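Long-time lurker, first post. I've been practising inverse folding by hand and with some scripts of my own, and I keep getting stuck on stretches where the structure tokens seem ambiguous. Below is the full token string for one chain I'm working on. Before anyone asks, I'm not after the true native sequence, just a reasonable design that respects the backbone. If someone could post their per-position residues I'd love to compare against what I wrote down in my notebook.
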């Protein structure tokens, strides 16, 4: 059975997210209080659309939110998004709720209220800018004309040579970039002064010729990584897509 996602409020973000989720095999429902926007959303193939105020329980009930796996509140009002997620979680027993907010200072409060994921528009914008900075840096280091790149997920063990070293101290080949670090519940866009810690998961971007050398420098072991080949133009789209609305 397809997993079901309900998108409440919003328009441009909702339409873009709906198209992406449907392509990935999700069953998607959109709820919007504006009839004209509902008509536009209804043009998206396989998207179910309901007209109404998603902060009202009877509208959520009409849209059969009970059967949703994920509810995402995308209105332009933080308080409405909180109410929507609270209703979906507590009244309709939706397992996972996501709220869009415009005020970053409210993030911790939303989590305390039981919202599973909080997405701040300002933080997201900053992350997009960071990602573009990475791509600009990489373009100066790697010939982009049809180059074949490797993307590897590299786990840093406690005995790895890279542990406690700053990135600038690693002396990696110029054709290698650490594009992203996952550290516990934190996601880090690294810079030269960023220190590698035991348990870090690195997303390594490199040419095929330099991948093994870089992995060995970082971990002391070439094995135990997951990597894929990717042309640069596809890589750019994928990195841009890492920031979710």
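-- Answer (accepted) --
I ran through it position by position. Result:
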């Amino acid at each position: 059975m397809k997993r079901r996602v309900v998108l409440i409020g919003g328009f441009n973000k909702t339409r873009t997210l709906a198209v992406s989720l449907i392509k990935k095999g999700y069953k998607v429902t959109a709820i919007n209080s504006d009839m004209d926007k509902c008509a536009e959303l209804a043009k998206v193939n396989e998207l179910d659309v309901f007209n109404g105020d998603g902060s009202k329980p009877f509208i959520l009930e009409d849209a059969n939110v009970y059967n949703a796996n994920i509810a995402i509140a995308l209105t332009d009002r933080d308080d409405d998004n909180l109410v929507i997620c609270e209703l979906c979680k507590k009244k309709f027993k939706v397992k996972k709720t996501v709220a869009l907010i415009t005020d970053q200072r409210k993030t911790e409060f939303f989590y305390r209220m039981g919202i599973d994921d909080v997405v701040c528009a300002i933080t997201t914008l900053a992350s997009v800018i960071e990602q573009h900075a990475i791509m600009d840096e990489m373009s100066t280091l790697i010939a982009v004309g049809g180059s074949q790149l490797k993307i590897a997920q590299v786990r840093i063990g406690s005995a790895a040579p890279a542990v406690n070293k700053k990135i600038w101290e690693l002396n990696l080949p110029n054709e290698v970039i650490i594009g992203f670090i996952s550290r516990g519940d934190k996601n880090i866009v690294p810079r030269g002064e960023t220190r590698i810690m035991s348990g870090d998961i690195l997303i390594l971007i490199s040419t095929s010729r330099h991948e093994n050398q870089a992995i060995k420098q970082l971990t002391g072991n070439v094995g135990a990584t997951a990597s894929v080949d990717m042309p640069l133009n596809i890589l750019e789209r994928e990195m841009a897509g890492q920031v979710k609305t």
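A couple of notes from the structure itself: The longest helix spans residues 121-141. The first strand starts at residue 4 and ends at 8. Happy to go over any region you disagree with.
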